[in-house]
Design a protein that fits this description.
0% strand, 14 helices, mainly alpha, 303 residues, single chain
Length: 303
């Protein structure tokens, strides 16, 4: 009994820092993506992100000799997972950020736990508890009131538009679908293999589009500061963060790590304020807090 408690304590001491570091990396996703839009268009940012992350994954697969998934039983769900998380999510997030602020994206990304549970319920045929719907309703109403009231029109840093917000929301939906599919793939081949091979598949899928749009051309001329942000986006956010997060989930459970996702909007808001000079108003803080409280209440009754 003591050995179990000691093992659980050690696991928690490793899992919590791993999850927190992953949240910091993910929290910088919208900020670094928004910054890169000053140098590249939305399509190029999304493709470059998946390209570079896929290259990192290929190196790790080669060094660790991670086996390839079985071609028939696992290829279809793996491809669907890769399309959702490593193709559509980066593309829609980047396209949305070209039309809205990173702060608005932070509010919308707070819905990820709700969307993930909703998708999981649809796939499994279960129905969430009524208190989950109550918490989700609070979060949705708070977000809608805030986003509509603070929309200023498409433009530079700090400006937002309803179209951009909706594109980011669509991206979050695909991310949630991918997380659910990823969970199923992970149960078959393991979380590390699912992440690495998912990135490989994503890289292969975006390569024809990248060659057609000549994404490689503007990458050559990027200044060092832009490359540092692209490295964050591809290596830390799309690669390292997923490995750390899945490692933490394996140690302390999906529900506990899922609750920590509630910290993500705060990390993004702080990053947008510090690095993008986006305003951090009381209205923004209250709106974000209301969304997080509603999401937290919904998450509590997700089971």
């Amino acid at each position: 009994m003591n050995n179990r408690a000691e093992h659980a304590g050690k696991g928690s001491r490793v899992a919590v820092p791993s999850a927190l570091v992953a949240l910091i990396f993910w929290g910088g996703t919208a900020v670094t993506n928004k910054f890169l839009l000053d140098f590249l268009d939305a399509l190029d940012v999304a493709i470059a992100r998946t390209w570079l992350a896929g290259i990192f994954a290929a190196v790790v697969i080669g060094l660790s000799r991670t086996p390839c998934p079985a071609p028939r039983a696992q290829s279809v769900p793996l491809i669907a997972y890769a399309i959702s998380v490593f193709v559509l999510w980066p593309l829609l997030l980047s396209a949305g950020l070209a039309r809205t602020s990173a702060s608005h994206a932070a509010i919308i990304m707070a819905f990820l736990p709700i969307l993930t549970i909703l998708v999981s319920s649809v796939v499994s045929g279960t129905r969430p508890k009524w208190r989950w719907w109550l918490g989700s309703g609070i979060a949705i109403v708070a977000a809608v009131l805030f986003l509509v009231d603070t929309t200023e029109g498409a433009g530079g840093a700090g400006r937002s538009s309803l179209a951009g917000d909706l594109i980011v929301l669509a991206g979050c939906l695909f991310a949630a679908i991918g997380y659910v599919l990823g969970g199923r793939v992970s149960s078959d081949i393991g979380t590390k293999a699912a992440t690495l091979w998912g990135l490989i598949v994503g890289m292969l899928l975006v390569t024809p589009v990248g060659l057609w749009s000549s994404t490689y051309a503007p990458l050559i001329a990027l200044p060092a500061i832009a490359w540092s942000h692209l490295a964050w986006l591809s290596f830390l956010s799309s690669f390292v963060a997923y490995l750390l997060w899945y490692h933490a989930s394996a140690l302390m459970g999906v529900n506990r790590t899922g609750t920590m996702l509630l910290l993500l909007p705060a990390v993004t808001l702080l990053g947008a304020y510090v690095f993008l000079d986006e305003p951090l108003s009381l209205q923004l803080i209250v709106g974000c807090a209301a969304v997080v409280v509603g999401t937290a209440y919904a998450h509590k009754y997700a089971g």
